[in-house]
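dude i think i finally got it to work??
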Amino acid sequence: MKNKKMGEEPLSLQESEARLKRVLEGSEQGFWDWELPSRQFIVSDRFETMLGYEPGEGDFSIDNWATHVHPDDLAKAIESINLHLAGKIPCHQVELRIRTKSGEWKYVLTHGKVVRWAEDGTPLMMSGTHTDITERKKAEKQVFEQAELLDLAHDAIIVRDINHTITFWNRGAERTYGWSQEEVRDQDLHQLLETKFPQPQAEIEEILFRTGQWEGELEHVTQNGSRIVVASRWAVKRDENNRPIAIMEISRDMTERKALLTKLELQARQDYLTGLNNRGYFMELAEREIKKASRYGHNFSILMIDIDNFKMINDTYGHKSGDQVLITLADIFQKTLRVADIEGRIGGEEFAVFLPETDQESAAVVAERLRSSVETAEIPLHNGEVVMRFTISIGISTPTSADYNLYVLLSQADEALYCAKHAGRNKVCIVESSNMVDSMI
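look at this
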């Protein structure tokens, strides 16, 4: 920005001050000067008209200044001035209620700084501004009162200003998070709750201020340190000039519901007894892996596994012991197979395993390792007085072309399993296309 035109003389100090005053008057802000040694206190015409006086009509001096300020606000104003004069805070800034000519109270934001010092560092002059914030405070009060009406709501209802400072915290918030309103007032909401957002906070606030609202799931921490998931809805409150002044957040604790949904999802995909994938989910995962293998030309193999003489185990030791056999086999899967391998219980005592990135030879090694681990496993019964053992038979199917079909491959693995059973059980058998090869491993 240019300070002067070509050939223009520099402005005198008085002219500069006059120009600054005109700018301040045009901005609807009042200004003030305080010469500390002489105790002279000067306010602008705009400050007087802001309070209902004619210019020059009001009596504002250092000696009577305090009489114009609301008694409840006087102490914090004096403290702020003294802290600034002592160099402990960079500026004096306080929201005050100042009495108008008619005797009403008007909210004013006063801001000031030392602008002149003596050679020894002693403050000589402070200057500052007065800004009428009455309408903003009325709007904040309205938001607060509206929120208070919902104090008995089950949901957590929180009002914060645009700087995230908490101004209202209902009983629902106390029940949800554990802190009382006295403990959280004036704290940064999302620092207190250690909020985890589903997307960058800046993106959320852009949507909020553009549309006036936002909703989504957030993760919060409570007073006792536990983390909860809440469904949260935000709305912006604006003043008469369309400036955002407050944000109301209504949040409902969804932790138990989310846990229940997760449990139901697991139940829909897992076998209730073994914890393995059930038939439907195994088929879904296997189809997904087959498409991937087909796209990239990767190997894979499928194992079909059956517990030998399972009916006889149930008849001899009881169904509870039979359940223990199923659980033990699932545990052996977890200990023997890779994380990438997909196991599923697809029938009563029948299981399938999908082995990604595994050719026929490697699949035979895996199958033999499983068979051997099962053969040596012991299940104690009747307080350890009896030890039960069991064996499995395994059929292996490995595709020989890129024309993969899960049902065909499962059928081939089932044929190989039948071969292992026919060969005496506790065996591994491999099928390739229509040719059966009994590995007799």
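The domain at 270-438 is CATH 3.30.70.270 (Alpha-Beta Plaits).
im so relieved honestly
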